[in-house]
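Researcher: Here's my situation. A collaborator sent me these components and asked whether they could plausibly form a single complex. I don't have experimental data yet, so a predicted model of the whole assembly would be a useful starting point for our discussion.
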Amino acid sequence: TAGITQAPTSQILAAGRSMTLRCTQDMRHNAMYWYRQDLGLGLRLIHYSNTAGTTGKGEVPDGYSVSRANTDDFPLTLASAVPSQTSVYFCASSRGTSESNEQFFGPGTRLTVL
Amino acid sequence: GNSVTQMEGPVTLSEEAFLTINCTYTATGYPSLFWYVQYPGEGLQLLLKATKADDKGSNKGFEATYRKETTSFHLEKGSVQVSDSAVYFCAPRYSSASKIIFGSGTRLSIRP
């Protein structure tokens, strides 16, 4: 199985432009997450979804929006990109929200905003 | 709020050396505890986990024991290899929140 796929692999974006990062999982997991990873800061949660049709804000949600229309897809949208959004973005999923559920990660999208 | 503290890197060791990466977490409730590993250019993947006190998680020669009395989950390996070079993240997950909390990561480099 593919697990989690993300697209694109990398992107250079002009400031002020919008962009959607795609994430798809084939494990029928209920919960999905978006993180950004910056050098020296580890992973920070942007948005999450505990189940299809619901979303919630994480630690750093400003400038990002998400939707969860179905179980498999969890796109992340930057409405008007700024240079501080340059980062590596990881999508993740877990079977549920129980504390024992591990998270599975996609390969990441490297975004550069100029 | 809940938090996790792990050893700052980078850590550089020679091949076959003993490894310890310290991790302590906030003692709020009884979280499940995870170690994730990130190899260069890849996403994170689960290395091992423990879901209750005194449990020992193990995988690929790595071990970590859930120590409730010291609120710790230190990662150990008896003899590291060059292929273990990666970034390691300690991550507790509390029942009070649906999200895992990730430590800042420890970069490990192994010299041949």
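Model: Some features of this prediction you could bring to your collaborator: Chain A has a mean pLDDT of 94. The longest strand of chain A covers residues 31-38.
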